[in-house]
Design goal:
Layout: E1 2-3, E2 14-15, H1 20-52, H2 57-83, H3 88-117, H4 125-141, H5 150-183, H6 191-223
Antiparallel strand pairs: 1-2
Length: about 260
Amino acid sequence: MVRLGGRGGRAGAVIKTYDGWGVWWRWTLACSMGLVIGLPLGIGLAWIALYWLEVQVLLVGAVVGFCVGSALGVAQGIVIRRVLPVAAGRWAVMTVAGAIGGSIGGALVIAGSERLLGVTGWVLAPVSGALLGAIIGLAQRLALPRYFPRGWWVLASSVSWCLGVSIFTGGFAFMWDPWMATAASPGGYSPMLIVGLVANPVVAIVFIGATSGAVMAWLVVRRIPPTSCLSCGYDLRGTAGNICPECGEQSPAAPAPSYSRTS
């Protein structure tokens, strides 16, 4: 456990080191909780804005992005501030900005595909998800330290959102016809279909967190040398003491221990 000072890192911040499993399950849990809170809230407000207030689609996308980005950014910030020199507030702000931009971009993709190409918006929903994830990753990139492999994170964010949205839309499309058929039947809705419709978004949400969390754990544990300063990434091998000569922050004395949880 290392406490950073105020010049290169966050004043008084405590950096804890976890193994890959520790980073992964914390990230997965944080993403899942953030999306479980943010998505229903955003979709509910968007439905009110679109059908009751009759606002523009772009504003609806901004509302969804703000709700999702706020919940997701706060939840992720709690985790990432413990393993990297990243300010939780800055991470949350960048996530909100990326989610708003990505949601607006995704709304334009879906609306444009329906009006210009005559393609159902659900077909291009994975493209919309990939765009959303990429823009969120690009915004979060600005909050990550320079030595962190930030390009990998942008790619991971885009792919995880693309696959998560594909799972959701694919599952929903698969169950839609049976759902409508049972709705018109004398017996009413099938209990298994109800379970499936509830479980489908949960699986998609957990998948987004698990896949992005796996990449985050790999980047933190494998791609950042354990002898690097946790504040600026300077290689501490051959230096004396536990003060980084590059940024002046307190770091583990070189050679630093491997990334296993110490507290």
